[in-house]
DgyrCDS3125 (Dimorphilus gyrociliatus), 81 residues
Amino acid sequence: MSTHVYKHMLTDKKFGLTANLLATKVMPSIIPHSVNPTLSVEQFETVMDVLTEMLDVIHFQRKSKMRLQSSEVATASSGVR
């Protein structure tokens, strides 16, 4: 498993890793590696760092979307366009 590839994909916007894609496709394929007994401490830390970064991306994207939706609802209900 190459966590460096995932790390690069997280930082380069052209890959378009959305919160949904990370949560439903990418992370489920990486998480089992976190309990692989053959990993060294360094490899384990790398896997965990990538997973943490992915969770941060999900957190940021979802929170931003929820705030935007919340402000749109508030604007619509106040009659402002």
User: Anything to note?
Assistant: Residues 3-76 form one domain. The CA atoms of residues 71 and 81 lie 12 Å apart. The mean pLDDT is 89.
